[in-house]
Amino acid sequence: MSLPLNAGPRVLWLTGLSGAGKTTLSEALARGLRARGEAVAVLDGDALRRGLCADLGFSPEARAENIRRAAEVARLMADAGLRVIVALISPYRHERALARGLFRPGEFAEVHVHAPLAVVEARDPKGLYARARRGEIPQFTGIDAPYEAPEQPELRIDTADCTVDEAVDRMLVLCQPAAGADAA
Ligand SMILES: Nc1ncnc2c1ncn2[C@@H]1O[C@H](COP(=O)(O)OS(=O)(=O)O)[C@@H](OP(=O)(O)O)[C@H]1O
Ligand SMILES: Nc1ncnc2c1ncn2[C@@H]1O[C@H](COP(=O)(O)OP(=O)(O)O)[C@@H](O)[C@H]1O
Fold first, then answer.
1. pLDDT digits over 56-115, tens only?
2. For residue 164, which ligand has an atom nearest its CA?
3. Does 90 qualify as catalytic in the annotation?
4. Which end of the chain is more exposed for a tag (fewer CB within 10 A), N or C?
5. Rounded to an integer, what distance in angstroms lies between the CA atom of residue 87 and that of residue 121?
6. Homologous superfamily assigned to 11-178
7. Do the annotations mark residue 56 as ligand-binding?
8. What pLDDT, in 10s, does the model give residues 25-56?
9. DSSP string of 9-24, one letter each residue
10. DSSP state of 180
11. How far apart are CA 19 and CA 115, in angstroms?
């Protein structure tokens, strides 16, 4: 079933450091929304980089193109009636603003999935921070490449300070009709 026009943001754009919890929260949120009967698509950075964006590395230009492609796909999916969850580090404010610019006011919600660097380094679910500290992965976000935190995200979730269920509940509230009352 297509998303009703007043059902809150069509796109939830999760941004944050590697290990902050974007993949974990996007999958849990998708389960929660599907349990409500919604059709949901998840665009995760790791998955996109295995296919559509397999030609891109991690230079600023490559990341900008990665974000641009994800935003355009999200636009198409939202137009097809899906709720779309994007989970990308998307470290640059400018590129996130360009992504937002593809949507009408109220259609796009930026969710800053935050955890302090010390916490994500301690989690290090893929061992990437350890490798980056050893100099094996250049331009690693948070180590030797920048992360520009959102200044006015619709939601900021500190995953060092809440459970996955609590975080999902907050995002589900954002997806209530009242939160999207100004959506066209
Ligand atoms: N140099 C460097 N910096 C950051 N991340 C790196 C890098 N090299 C590989 N990886 C892995 O790629 C995943 C991030 O891809 P994204 O597409 O989300 O990045 S970006 O939005 O284009 O910046 C990221 O996945 P997540 O941990 O899920 O964020 C890493 O597994
Ligand atoms: N509150 C929380 N929210 C999300 N992830 C959490 C939380 N607490 C601990 N974690 C753990 O942190 C790690 C986050 O990894 P992942 O979801 O792959 O992050 P990202 O996609 O941002 O790189 C997982 O191992 C997850 O179990």
1. 999 999 999 999 999 999 999 999 999 999 999 999 999 999 999 999 999 999 999 999
2. 2
3. yes
4. N
5. 19
6. P-loop containing nucleotide triphosphate hydrolases (3.40.50.300)
7. no
8. 999 999 999 999 999 999 999 999 999 999 99
9. -SEEEEE--TTSSHHH
10. G
11. 8
